[in-house]
Amino acid sequence: MALPWYRVHTVVLNDPGRLIAVHIMHTGLVAGWAGSMALYELAIFDPSDPVLNPMWRQGMFVMPFMTRLGITDSWGGWSITGESVSNPGIWSFEGVALSHIILSGMCFLAALWHWVYWDLELFRDPRTGEPALDLPKIFGIHLLLSGILCFGFGAFHVTGFFGPGIWVSDAFGITGKVQPVAPAWGADGFNPFNPGGIASHHIAAGILGILAGIFHLNVRPPQRLYRALRMGNIETVLSSSISAVFFAAFVTSGTMWYGAAATPIELFGPTRYQWDSGYFQQEIERQVEASVSEGLSESQAWSRIPDKLAFYDYIGNNPAKGGLFRAGAMDKGDGIAEAWLGHPIFRDKEGRELTVRRMPAFFETFPVILVDKDGIIRADIPFRRAESKYSIEQVGVTVDFYGGKLNGQTFKDAPTVKKFARKAQLGEVFEFDRTSLESDGVFRSSPRGWYTYGHANFALLFFFGHLWHGGRTIFRDVFTGIGAEVTEQVEFGVFQKLGDKSTKKQGAV
Questions:
Q1: Contact 46/318 with Cβ under 8 angstroms?
Q2: What is the pTM of this model?
Q3: Cβ atoms within 10 Å of 205's Cβ, excluding its own
Q4: What value, to the nearest 5°, has the Cα angle with vertex 256 and ends 212 and 192?
Q5: Average pLDDT over residues 24-28
Q6: Paired residues of 429 in beta bridges
Q7: Which secondary-structure segment (H or E) carries 151?
Q8: Are 311 and 340 in contact (CB under 8 A)?
Q9: What is the Cα–Cα distance from 368 to 380, expressed in whole angstroms?
Q10: Dist. CA 39–CA 469, nearest whole Å
Q11: What is the pLDDT of residues 163-174, one digit of tens each?
Q12: Do residues 381 and 418 touch, judged by C-beta distance below 8 A?
């Protein structure tokens, strides 16, 4: 006996098993790309200086995501944090890369098998015996599986119950390490910078996905909804799948660009807004003031500032400074950072302490201006020297260094003072090796900038793709010229004589 329509809704395809083969092939391609990219990055990665030459300065794109999920060690005997390791185990950088490549090969084999043996009982309509896919049931299966995966990640991997945890750091990206994270179930769980929200949101979303998957496996869609949403059309699946992807891409673009607990600055570099708001500069000044209040000298106070924190307060690490179409890692621009020279403090001949005005994010050049504590311009490097009133020479500016490589040194000659004034425009002063990589002096963007740019573009592309395919499937009858006036002619009961418009039946009063 044939099943009623609401028990099984299917889309008829000649060989639906091959659709599965194509999906498996795509999965294999992604896994193969990820594994190959990871091996390439490991081949060119220099782990010798995790403070001044971290992975994001070297242009690593895949490695930060591996580290974020708990991978920190290499079979080469090094760790991302700088220590030596003797037994990293299977889940090292190389182990993860190879596992993806093995998974890719298995997916290719599975795709070939499904392409050849597509005619399975699974893909047959039990009513007619024709090849078909039960799309609402497939949706329920995928929703259930993704819910289980989401719940498992939050409840086991992130919490450390059965897994390493995730990368967690302090607000200024100094003390980061992989550690278990307890779920945050209160309002603070909605703080994007609270790692506890990652665990709780995955657990909650996973439970919701599991329940929704069970619901869709057991409850068939109503006839009107089935027809209104064109659930029997495979293009509906494409359209709705694309919507999930573009939504995720928009969200992840925002959390990457503006920063979040899921995109720590130790792995992806600082955000643009941390430079714009003087985020690290204020923390450095706070720490110095705290040290001075404890009775330390200025030199001692600045010497206590970690090189890592000082390096964040450098405009070359701003993802908005580098042009996206300047290929290469940040090190290809300004060079490989070798040492923090220290914090320069400028003074005029009257003893006033002067500060160099910093370059805004979207400027390539900026006038060198030195202002006092009241914001009054006291010195500059003039554009027209003949009309100069505040030149370094005229004002008698000197520079003293506190902390870093030049700690305690004073420079009084104008050319040297000007050199450091220009460097102070860019934040803290560092020494760079520009010969090893033939760096050209033109800033590059960090992986944070590349990721945001790429995913925002993909999101827009997929958004318009969703509208296109959604429109095609919902208005398919309009686009093909088959409207209600055509279907009426062949619909039983509309006319007394089938197809004869002059014999249209009257509706019941």
A1: no
A2: 0.86
A3: 16
A4: 60
A5: 94
A6: 342
A7: helix 135-152
A8: yes
A9: 6
A10: 37
A11: 899 999 999 999
A12: yes
Do residues 47 and 54 touch, judged by C-beta distance below 8 A?
A: no
- Cα–Cα distance measured from residue 509 to residue 504, given in angstroms and rounded to the nearest whole number: 15
Tell me: pLDDT of 495 over 50.
yes
Q: What confidence tier does 204 reach under pLDDT thresholds 50, 70, 90? A: very high
Angle (CA) 38-39-42 rounded to 5° is 85
Calculate the dihedral angle through the C-alpha atoms of 299, 300, 302, 303, rounding to the nearest 10 degrees. 110
Strands 410-411 and 377-380: unpaired
**What length does the chain have?**
509
| Backbone angles phi and psi of 317, in degrees to 5 | -95, 5
State the Cα angle at 489 between 488 and 495, rounded to 5°. 85
- Rounded CA-CA distance 91/96 in Å is 6
pLDDT tens, residue by residue, 235-254: 888 999 999 999 999 999 99
Only one residue has tokens 């104008």, namely 414
Which tokens is 58 given? 């070297």
The pLDDT assigned to 2 comes to: 47
Pairing of strands 410-411, 429-433: unpaired
**Could you say which DSSP state residue 249 is in?**
H
Name the residue with tokens 């999965």.
27
Q: Which two tokens stand for residue 426?
A: 């860019």
Task: Identify the CA nearest to 271 among candidates 181, 364, 356, 173.
Answer: 173
Tokens 């005005």 belong to 357
Return the structure tokens found at 489.
Answer: 């002619």
Please tell me the distance from the alpha carbon of residue 160 to that of residue 452, in angstroms, as a whole number. 29
Place of tokens 């600045």: 302
Q: What is the pLDDT of residues 88-110, one digit of tens each?
A: 889 999 999 999 999 999 999 99
